[in-house]
Amino acid sequence: MQDFDVIVIWSGSWWLTVSIWLASAGKKVALIEKWLIGWDCTNFWCVPSKAFIDLAKNNPEWLWIKQVLEKARARRKIIRDEETPEKIENYGMKVFKWFASFKDKNTILISSPFFKGSPWNVMEGEVLMNEITAKNIVISTGSHANNLEIDWVNNDDILTNENVFELQEDIKDLVVIWWWYIGCELAESFANCWVKTTIIQRNEYLIPREEKESSILLKDIFLNKNINVLTKTDIIKSTDWYLIVRDEKWEHKIKYDKILVALGRWANIDKLWLENAWINFSKWWIKVDKYNRTNIKNIFAIWDCVENNPMFTHWANNEGRWVVRNIILPFLKTSTRNAVLPATLYTNIEVARIWKTEQELLEIYSNEDIVSKIIYFDKNDRSILTDNKTGFIKINFKRLSWTILWATIVSSNAWEMLPVLSSAMQNNISAYKLSKIIFSYPTKAELIKKIADSFVIETLSNIKWDIKYLIKSHILQMITWIIWISILFSYFYFKNKYKLTNIDIAKSLYDFFTTSMYWPIIYILVYAIRPLVFFPATFLSFMSGAIFWIWWWLLYTIVWENLSANFSYTIWKIFWKRLLPEWSTWLLAELKSKTAKDSFVPILLTRLLFFPFDVVNYLSGILKVERKWFFFWTLIWTIPWSLVFILAWSSVENVWEFDFSQIHINFDLVIMSVIIFVLSLLLAKILRKKWV
């Protein structure tokens, strides 16, 4: 018996989803939080930052920064007061205000925490109090701000999102170092409270992962607010309350009272003792599968502590919903890790983006695959009538399919329009269907329809160009398809017309090869095109054993097996290049990621474990395994494969006479074949433990 059904470690915004939903479903839930309920979202970012942004933007009392932050903390307290352990336990769960670490995969050690410095960084003086067990454990420990040490700058004068809202004094000069969401939102809000603000950005663009138009527009807005924006700039040194920085041309001397650092975040996994539960993790992150499970299947991880996870509360809540479902209904597991993700930069003129960035998608698509349409709000009636014309909508469509690849809205209250595009992308709604939606007039969202209309009209009026593009971009696939269908049709037509089986065809080929002087050339040709008609390689491999002595047989078999493997790899790589995008499913994305990092292990294991020979070749082509490594590892690891089949078939004498009374079995060769087969499986198991 376990103490609980589920243990949830730490209580960010996701605890509402995971803990409360599981408790509502009748599960016995324990929530462990070593410090503040609500963690990052309630205490350090989402809640206080949005209160601060709103107060700073609407500052009719002309308040200074100290007073505005006091009001922001008062608003935060309203949320905090609803998240006390006593109120949370009313939902039917048990709250432990202790520190958590793993004893094993079902057992959590809980201890009273004594902190030195920041409670999310350094802990000392742990006193073990108890241990609790559960069938399932959810790790949701979040992340902490990355620190930056600057020579001659007092650590007390360096702010992050984790202490900036606790500022108890008025300041006149603030320097914001790098990054974008946190840095831009706070820089503008401080400037709205009469703080002279400077942003130092190492990249060329202010918000480098967004559209260039977004960076250019936001920079202009900031400059008009007297926010000093320095791009392509690095810090050289500091001296006497000044930072010395250098851009491409000049050095600048910038005064500061406080320095706000926004350099990214690292997962809170220190002191969890993940190794005690045999959980796979890197130095900074926990690794999960598409169901948010770690390698230990009863232990889940969500939010910022997960490798490559988007650091957004709404993403964590979405993950939490599906983790709840997968715990309650483990036989109907569902993944949400390929869901369409919206993201919003909450500056006064918001920057809202949906799905991947342009840079990420250009790794999959070429520029010709993408049609970009942008319209500014000064062309929108509602924006003109309300004198709110700043910003634009940019939608990037996939040519031919007309679906949305990614989109950006830059405007006041941009997030209110984003769900329209998010829904369209999640449900693969084309530009044509989007243009048929009726929007209320006059609204700013009507600009979405206007862009869809523009794309549809332009595409239809240039249909000839699109047809040429289709032919040009798919010419190899078309040729491959024609050849493939022709060979496949001819083969099965011949086979059905004469009512032949695969064994009949193999026997006919054997008779031909033993009488023809050109048989080696024809044999290689037949073996090479064999994958196109899905003719089993085993028959041809066995056949060659009846013609050659065993070692020549092995040599020839390896040669034409590798020719065949590389031919089928090439055909499938070409044919599926555009028909099956790498990111279309989580499984393909995961497989491609693994084979891109190391093709040795997957090819090695599939060959040693005797996976279907052609299937491995096809998948390697689809997943775009690097050719040189596919060739090299296939060449090596087909040797044990070939030996097993060759020895097994060599043990059967006079098989091609098709007279069972004349067949004899050489059991020595059978035993050798079995030994190599078993050794191959054992070697695969050993190597899998070492490398996977």
Describe the protein in words.
The protein is of the alpha/beta class and 692 residues long. The protein folds into four domains: 4-38 and 83-145 and 266-332, FAD/NAD(P)-binding domain, CATH 3.50.50.60; 155-263, 3-Layer(bba) Sandwich (FAD/NAD(P)-binding domain); 342-461, 2-Layer Sandwich (Enolase-like, domain 1); 473-691, no CATH class. Strand 10, helix 7 (212-224) and strand 11 form a beta-alpha-beta unit. Helix 17 (537-545) packs across helix 22 (627-650).
Q: What is the secondary structure topology, with strand pairs?
A:
Elements: E1 4-9, H1 14-24, E2 29-32, H2 39-44, H3 46-57, H4 65-80, H5 85-89, E3 94-96, E4 99-104, E5 107-112, E6 127-139, E7 143-145, E8 158-159, E9 173-177, H6 181-192, E10 196-200, H7 212-224, E11 228-230, E12 234-239, E13 242-246, E14 251-255, E15 258-261, E16 265-267, E17 299-301, H8 313-328, E18 342-345, E19 350-354, H9 358-361, E20 370-376, H10 381-385, E21 392-398, E22 404-411, H11 418-426, H12 431-435, H13 446-461, H14 463-497, H15 502-513, H16 519-529, H17 537-545, H18 550-575, H19 586-597, H20 600-608, H21 613-622, H22 627-650, E23 652-653, E24 664-665, H23 667-691
Helix pairs in contact: 1-8, 3-4, 3-6, 15-17, 16-18, 17-18, 17-22, 18-21, 18-22, 20-22, 20-23, 22-23
Quickly list its features.
692 residues; alpha/beta; FAD/NAD(P)-binding domain; Enolase-like, domain 1; five-stranded parallel sheet; 23 helices; 44% helix
